[in-house]
Design goal:
Layout: E1 2-9, H1 12-23, E2 29-31, E3 34-39, E4 44-50, E5 58-64, H2 68-80, E6 89-93, E7 96-104, E8 110-119, E9 126-129
Parallel strand pairs: 1-4, 5-8
Antiparallel strand pairs: 1-5, 2-3, 3-4, 6-7, 6-9, 7-8
């Protein structure tokens, strides 16, 4: 399990170069307007979205897990506390196939619990099953 931090950036090339140097880690996936890093130390999934919001602002936070059952367990645990979730969906977004659930904090901070199940060629959200949800911008 590792935390995900998704940032909005103005210049993807400049940002990729900076984070490669800062974390001594090459970019993991690069697509138009999008890049992500699978950083081992500290365990972090860093995602960059070019032109999706004010530069340097938070896009969303997440928890990447290893198995779909961990998404289900988290969704059940969170919803049992009274926090509203989107339910569990199989989606394609952010250039990946995922099983995920989303929650919003009191300040509308968006959190995604997910497992990546494959690669995809699109950034936009496509729901494969279950309820309506909001994925990547």
């Amino acid at each position: 399990m590792r935390l995900q931090l998704a940032l909005n950036v103005d210049n993807l090339d400049e940002s990729v170069s900076f984070y490669e140097k800062m974390f001594d880690t090459p970019v993991n996936k690069r697509r138009p307007g999008y890049a992500n890093f699978a950083i081992e130390n500290p365990p972090l999934k860093l995602v960059l979205f070019e032109g999706q919001g004010p530069s340097g602002s938070l896009n969303h936070l997440g928890v990447e897990v290893e198995e779909a059952s961990q998404v289900s367990d988290a969704e059940q645990r969170i919803s049992a506390t009274g926090i509203e979730t989107t339910g569990i969906d199989d989606t394609v977004c952010c250039y990946a196939e995922k099983t995920e659930t989303w929650v919003s904090g009191p300040d509308n901070t968006r959190w995604e619990w997910y497992v990546k199940t494959g690669d995809a060629d699109v950034l936009e959200n496509t729901i494969i099953s279950s309820s309506d949800t909001t994925c990547c911008p």
